[in-house]
Amino acid sequence: MNDTPPKAPPLYPKSHLLAASGIAALLSLALLVFPSSDVEAKKTHLSLEPETPIEQLKQEQDAQDQSQATELPTESPFAQIDNGDDATEGTATNEPAAAPVKKEAVAAAKNANHREIVVSKGDTLSTLFEKVGLPAAAVHEVMASDKQAKQFSQLKNGQVLQFELGPDGNLKQLHSKLSDLETISLSRTEKGYTFTRDVSKPNVRTAYVHGVINNSLSQSAQRAGLSHSMTMDMANIFSYDVDFAQDIRKGDEFDVIYEQKVINGKTVGTGNILSARFTNRGKTYTAVRYTNKQGNTNYYTADGNSMRKAFIRTPVEYARISSLFSMGRKHPILNKIRAHKGIDYAAPRGTPIKATGDGKVILAGRRGGYGNTVIIQHGETYRTLYGHMQGFAKGIQNGSVVKQGQVIGYIGTTGLSTGPHVHYEFQVNGVHVDPLGQKLPMADPIAKSEKQRFMQESQPLMARMDQEKATMLASSKR
Known about the structure:
Mean pLDDT: 77
Number of domains: 3
């Protein structure tokens, strides 16, 4: 046993100890701030490792989406709507990211044989068949199958064609909706393709409109809710009493009750004007549509007089009067005083010219300064002339029988003419009269045997127009 005490550790100066502590602290800080190459590489690896599976999933997802897009037909959104998938699409945003891919795959499998193509500018039936993978021979087969099948080649922008393909990829059915009322189809049978036309029968209801003319009849009618064709119908009804080229004034009013064609609550077209009222320069004209027991339909005043007269006021609709009837007018080309025994109606070249009354064509050809001219004899008393025509309507020749309102030619500048217009003359027993000042002969009124039946239809229509107008004016003052 050694009783010698242990040797004490050497003592260092205090300054040395402080210096050693400082160096140790600096080394520790350096290790923390500047790790070794091994540690730094390991940290970099660890920081990227959690992101790698996400990137990999994203790439796989993109590849899967691209694959699905290739499998789906380009018109798949239409196919999904047709198959009732719109409700599913509405909730898709609340589902996991992978769910829509699965649904699209199901939709693709479900609609693999259904294609919908929307026609755009430049499309032909051949290009549309090509888009759904059908060969050019299929187009020829369809066109040769039925004469009516050619309607499929009369394409319009926005028109939708639906293709149903068989398991072998050949065309099984072809559908197209021409309008809200009409659909055409082709279906493959053992003998070829069969053409069918489906025309829906709409419900018919009545509608009322009221308008005040501020600028032009067409603009005011459009603002009131009348289509262009309905406006033309109204003008034709009152054309015996109102010159729509000359007589229309600001503040003139109109009321119309007409037929509306409706399918599933949607208006798909219009029918006939049942009654109308037109106030021109403070004078009111009324019209009621009536079909007699023989099946003949005409318009009559509210008390049963015929709206139809032997002659209409003007041969051109919405034309501008460029020269009035005058016995002392200076001719614009001959530059001398020469009677102007008619009315000039200026309108764009090619505007249709109508016969103002029933009659027989006694001239359809050239006539001096009148250029291309048509002269119509109306019975023994009346004769009308139409000059400076660009050309004659089909079938208009010497001896032709024409009806009132029938197109007989088109506005031009033939003969002595300074611009496109029609020169219109009216003769009574061989004497020229002013067409605008001539009192036109009336057609027959409602037969006495049908007067009571007519009034039973006329009175409720007139009463409704009064009531509708009063209600509308009262509501506008609130």
